Each structure stands twice: as C-alpha cells, then as structure tokens.
Amino acid sequence: MKRAKGLTAALVGLVACAGLIGCAGPDAEANPHTAVPDRFTGQQLDWKACGAPTLDEVGAQCADVTVPVNYADPQGPTLTVAISRIAGTAPQRGVMLSNPGGPGGEGLDFMVAVAEAMTPEVRARYDLIGMDPRGVGRSSAVDCRWPVGFGLHSAGLDAVGFAESVAIQGDLAARCAATEGARLAHVTTRNTARDMDVIRGILGAEKISYFGTSYGTYLGAVYMQMFPSRSDRMVLDSAADPDEYGTVGMMRAMGPANEAALDLWADWVAARDGVYHFGTSRAQVRGAVQDLIRQAADKPIRLGEYEIDEHWLPVVLFVGLDSPDQYEMLAGQIRTIADAAAGKPAQPDDTLDSTLGFALQARPKDNSAQMAIMCGDVAAPRDPAFYLRNIEAARATQPVFAGFTNNITPCAFWTPPAEPATAVRNAVPAMIVQSTGDTRTTYAGAVALHDDLSASRLITLQDVPIHWIFGRYQNSCVYSAVNTYFLDGTLPADDRTCPAD
C-alpha cells in the first residue's frame, strides 16, 4: 500500500524498531553507520565576506564546512560545503537553513529573496543560512564535463528521436562515472541532510528551522525523517511527493500540469495576436507551437549561435511556464524562434540566450549535480522500452510534453544508489505551501506529502500556476500564514485555502 496513516503508521514504526536495524533514540535513522567525529561537529568556521554582490549588500558572511564524503567512513576523504549567514538582530529562534530546489540549485544567496517576504519581526529572530549543497556551486562541486548543461530533454516525435535520447543519456552517465568516480555515489539527499545536521551542531543550535522550495521540500522532509527531534519550524513551499520523487514518477506528474499551463499561456497569447501572430484561439496557438516543434525535428532551427531541435524546444516552453509572470517573456521567445525558423533575422534576448547557452553548450557550466543527486537517491528503470511505452501512451493527451516528462534520463545508466530511498512518515509539525497550478511539483504531490507528515498543515494558493510562492509571488494570505508560523510557531487549526490577490 502507498500510504501508512494513523495506527498503521505507528505499527510500521514499532516494527522497524523491533527489527534488525534497531532504534537507538529519536534520531536513530540519521547515522546508520558511524557517529560523526568531533573534528567535524566541533570545527571552527572562518567567516568572511562572500564576494557576491547580492550577499555583500546585505552584510552576509560566508564560510566553508568540512564534512565526510561518506558518513559510513568518517575517517576517509572529505569535501567542502559552502554556507552563508545573514545575521538576525535578535535571533531568539536560532538558525533557519534553506534550499532553493533543483536539485542542484545554488543556495548561498537564496535567503536574500526569502528575507524580503518576511516581516521585520520574523527577519530579526533568525540567522538565515544559505547553502550550496554538497556537489553544487562553491561546495565541492560535481563536474561531469558534459557537452550540454541539462540532463533532461525531450525524446522528440518518433522512435528515431527517442533513440537519439538513449544514446545521449547513456553518454552523459558514462561521463559522470568517468570523471567523478567513487565520490559520485555519496552526492545524495540523505548525505546533504547529514551535512545540515553537522552545520546545526557547529552553529550551536539544538534545532533548525527551515525554508525549502521545490526539491528543497524533499530535502526538508528527509531531514525531518532523519532528525525529527532537531526539526523546529519547517516550511515546505511547492512540495514534492516523497514517494514519487525521482526522474520517473515526479517527472511524469509534470506532464498534465505543463499541458494545462500551456493552455493558459495559449489563451494569453491568443488575446494578443496583434503582437505575436500565432492565432486568435487556444487551438491556433497550440497548433503553431506544435508545427514549430515538427519543423525543428525536420531541420534544427538556427538562432544566432544555436541550433534548436525537437529535443530542446519543449525545454524552452517548460522553463517559461512555471509562473504567469513569465508569459510575456515566453511569448516573445517563441516568436523569435518562429521568426528564425521562417528565415527572418532574429536574435535571442538575454533570457533566451541564457537558457540556450546553458542547455546546449553547458555555459557557464553544466548542471550534472542535478542528475548526480536524483540518480544517487532513487534507482530508475533501465529498460529503454519502459520509457518509450510511457511516451507513446501519453502523446494523445500531452502532445507537447509527453516526450519530455516521460523520457529516459541518465539515471537509467547510473550505478545503483548506495542507500535505500527515505520513506517519509512522521509527525513533525510543518507548514506546506502549494499552488493548485504548479507545473514543477504538482498539487497532488503536496497533498501526498501532507498525508505523510501527519502533523502538517496545507496552505493552498488557489488557481495560480506558480512554482515557489513565498519570496517569489506576492499573496497576502500565504505570506501571513508563513510569517505567523515563523514568528510564534502557530500552525492554523486546519488547512487553509488562499485566493489570488
């Protein structure tokens, strides 16, 4: 059965304690191998200026934390985790750690944006801690030396396109294995949660509060499972279902959500046909987009220094559909690509140039850390036929995104995970914040996490297709709920639904 609730959940916990692993206390799951030596938990940090404008402007400081590569071998090799601190003026609640998602997202300056959504009273009470997780950014970073920047792309329109995907993804996985070696198996969410607890100890906090969005909600939930007695005020914004986390279940759930967002975007574009010239109805705009993808499959579209084919054009759409604030930007980008396809003079704007440069040229660097974390967390099916069946089954209802959200990934060629995936089932209080139209972490996933966290409350933003709310998308109801919880620890008596402002 998928979910254990109430008495069943309690029995599951009792059986686990009576089994071969045993239970040594409330945080027994955290370190199933060897206790973390004092040389990690007692290290003195060398705080200094971060050298990043967004952080330096708010007076943040940065430091490097040394942690084991493998917590089962704490005397073995080490790696560095980079953290930042924006000090509170009256930090009565101690520290608030954070993660911006991805996985693979650099988070040193993430709390700058989040702090802007906090009331002054909340902001004063915490030292806000940003972090580049292990394998990411300024931390000891994974660098698989990929020729592309992104481990996710569309399978295209037919078996030929899918065969190209299989070859590409197998090559990406092989590059990671060759360049990263044994360290790769330990760039995982469970080890990042252990890193967070080392950081907690170094900072002298008995517990941590936490704000995470997207993948950061999974990391937060894993920390709550591994370290329940050390979890304080936990806010999980745009939440992932921990049972579906990975490159299969979580990705497949994005298909219908992105098709629905594409409908809304097509309506917006159709109402502005005098500007974009894709048609005056949803069907006409969608038809123009699908024609453009077919054209890219026949012959890649040359735009400046880039060649955009059927594998990457859906990625441009996916990137642009995670907020209604981006509809105008996305419409302009697709108009530019369509002009290039028609042989008209066209150049990408700065945002599209950034997306294409990253995706097609790994510029300034690849995001192989994303696949390292996801593939290291959860095993994926290895048979290419599994993915092709899913793609073909979804094409009728997902004509644009079936090939993207069901495609094979490097995880199909990865070494199996070093540890089992974390089963999240606990009663640690938490606030889950979710929009009904989220295109990355779907609303159903947030409801599932809410079920798994039996003491949580769910704050729903109704009828807005936005991913990441607090700190990105102003809503007085959501912001009030989060700030109240961070201020005095008060969760609403019941779940709450917030209308759009």
Automatic annotation (TrEMBL):
InterPro entries with a match to the protein in the record: AB_hydrolase_1, AB_hydrolase_fold, Pept_S33_TAP-like_C, Serine_prot/Carboxylest_S33
One Pfam match: Abhydrolase_4
Name the record gives this protein: Transporter
GO molecular function: hydrolase activity
Organism the protein comes from: Nocardia mangyaensis
Sequence similarity: Belongs to the peptidase S33 family.
Residue ranges of domain Peptidase S33 tripeptidyl aminopeptidase-like C-terminal in the record: 406-498
Stretch forming the signal peptide: 1-24
Key word Amino-acid biosynthesis present: no
